[in-house]
Structures are given as C-alpha cells and as structure tokens.
Amino acid sequence: MTRPFIVAVDGPSGSGKSSVCAKACEKLGFVYVNTGQVYRCIAWLLGEWGIAEAIESVICERVTQEVPHITWDMTQNRFLYRGRDLTPFLYAESVGQGASRVAKSAAIRKLLLPLQRHIALHTTKAGAVVDGRDIASVVFPDAELKIFMEASLEVRAQRRLEQLQAHGAEADLEELQEQMQDRDHQDATRDVAPMQREHDAVILDTSDMGFEASIDALVALIRERAKTLGISFT
Question: Of 26, 85, 95, 157, which has the highest C-beta tally within 10 A?
Fold first, then answer.
C-alpha cells in the first residue's frame, strides 16, 4: 500500500487547527485526523466510567480494554465509541482540561499512539492532515510537511467562545482566556511530549486571517511542498 502524504499540524487550542484542517482536507481530497480529540474522548470516558481520579495503572487497564472500540468516522470527522458519536461531549473546556491531564501520562500516550498512526496511514485517500500538540515530534516525525499553527490568546479565546455557543454551551470570554492560558502552560511544560514547534516546521499564524484565508494558506503550503517533492494529487 502506498503511504499517504502526511501533513503534521501542531499548535495551541483555538489556533484554528480543527476547522481549518478539516476544510483544507475537503479541498484536497485528504482525510482529516484530529488526534487531540482522542485525548478528549479518553478524558470524557474516564468520567463516564467513574475512574477519572483513579491511579494510572487502573486507567491504563481500562483504556487498553476499550481502545479497540474507539473508531474514527472519516466521512464526518468524528470519533465513535462502541458506535456512539462522542462529538457533542468533547468541546467543553473542562473536557479539554481533562485531556491535558491525560496527555501527561506517558503510559496512556503510548497506548493511544498506534491508534493515531493507524487512522492516518490506513486511509484510502491520497493524503492525511493530522493535527494535535505533538504530531510533528512524536506521532509523525517523518511527515512530508510539518506546520505549527498559532494565533494570539485573545483571538483563540474568541474562537472557542463562538465554537461553544454554536454547540449550545454558555461560556465567559475572560474565563476562557484564563483556561486556555493554563492549558497552554500545561501542554508546553509537561514532561512527556510537550507541545513545541519543530525546527523544520512552517509557522502559520492565523491571528489576522479570516476562516477562508486560513484554509487557502494551509492548502497552498501543502501543494507547494508536494510540488517540491514531486508528488501529484488532486
């Protein structure tokens, strides 16, 4: 099987990764894989199972049992657990905070890494855009293109507020900024696979870009790299 063209996109929460990457994939005919949602899935499920505060060995045992039942719907960009769509539960900032705590565990990350790689590498599409916090450094250090997508804290918080409102949730902008700042610190300073920009990653700052402009910028970067590598896709 020919390996798909892999684009690794890292960056902080609210930088536009999920929405921009998903739309860019539609234009390119790629599959989109949101690996950050894997951690959100686990964080939410731990709460459902009542073991969010359990010791690591207990959590790992349960995750090992349940990972085979977590699947990615490539057509709808959503994670399913035993056939149940988890999307409506994953956008709360509390789930994001839980995901950040889960991501600190080297053992849990090791359990989830094969799932993340499998989703991208076994697509029937020409390529995959994979986003998260450590994609270029850990999940796909051999990606054909590495991008670090960023935006100012104020812009990211406003985007998250609009995202939450679109899902029917209430939130306070100032509180969101504080939560995102804390999350950034957690992600950047954790001992295991911290969020960082790889030396060979291209920076894409979307602070002053509208949604469509951000999509076009990402698509242009991907096409440019593919051309450089002599790779052709629709």
Answer: 157
First to last CA, the chain: 19
Q: Residue 41 carries which side chain, given as an amino acid letter?
A: C
**Taken in order 221, 188, 119, 142, is the CA torsion positive or negative?**
positive
d(CA 111, CA 98): 17
As a three-state string, the secondary structure of 34-86 is ECHHHHHHHHHHHHHHCCCCCCHHHHHHHHHHHHHHEEEECCCCEEEECCEEC
| Angstrom distances, CA of residue 79 to CA of 32, 61, 107, 126, 222 | 12, 21, 21, 21, 25
- Tens of pLDDT along 121-148? 988 899 999 998 889 999 999 999 999 9
For tokens 């920076």, the residue is 203
pLDDT in tens, 23-50: 999 999 999 988 888 899 999 999 999 9
